[in-house]
Amino acid sequence: MDSYELRIQYELSRWKQKILTDSNVFKTSAKKIQLKIQSLLPEQIQDLLTQSIKNMMTLFIGGSSVFSGGSEEYDALSLRERDEILDKKLNEYKKISAVEGAGTGAGGILLGLADFPLLMGIKIRFLVEAAKIYGYAPKDEVERQFMLYIFQLAFSSDEHRKKTLHVIENWEDQLDQNPQINWEHLQQEYRDHIDLAKLLQLVPVIGAPVGAYVNYQLLEQLGETAKNAYRIRHLKKKGELLN
């Protein structure tokens, strides 16, 4: 194991500890307020969010052309090289999502509604890129399942993230028995995870800066999760992952 991989072991340990530590009182209280506000959202907004999730389900189940292409161009790269390429790709996607969030946020509630499916598409395309960079083919149904676990690990409640982390850490050991995605649960977890700040994107005037900032942060969160999930698989495959 080289010095870079030793440093990654330490980073993974800290990242996993963050996931396994329950939210503090402030976050828990904020979550209750957020859920209350979500319950007051117009049915139009809730329906659009639900439809966005359903469209994602259709893509993943059907193996859409968005998953085509392999990972051959990244063969034989070291973990450091893969991480560096992912960081560059992530920066591109964060900028794209920020511009998209600012544009839809500037239009108030009508254009703000369009942000939900657009941002979902950006997240899916990023996950496809991440899979290829770390040597996995997203056209493979098993790999699409793994990508969905990454999605859940990034955007779920504390308790569900702990369960999802366990699945990801043991992925290669249980390929024949990995639990199928519970689509209804995934949808609910994602909806409940949406930040109060994300809802503020629908408000005229402040919607543009809020939309840009929040979308940027959501891609950052997804990027960190994807990178560490694939790091775990890389080190586990080499038999070098430390507990």
From TrEMBL:
Superkingdom to which the source organism belongs: Bacteria
Pfam families: EcsC
InterPro entries (UniProt xref): EcsC
Name by which UniProt lists this protein: ABC transporter-associated protein EcsC
UniProt organism field: Gottfriedia solisilvae
Protein's gene: ecsC
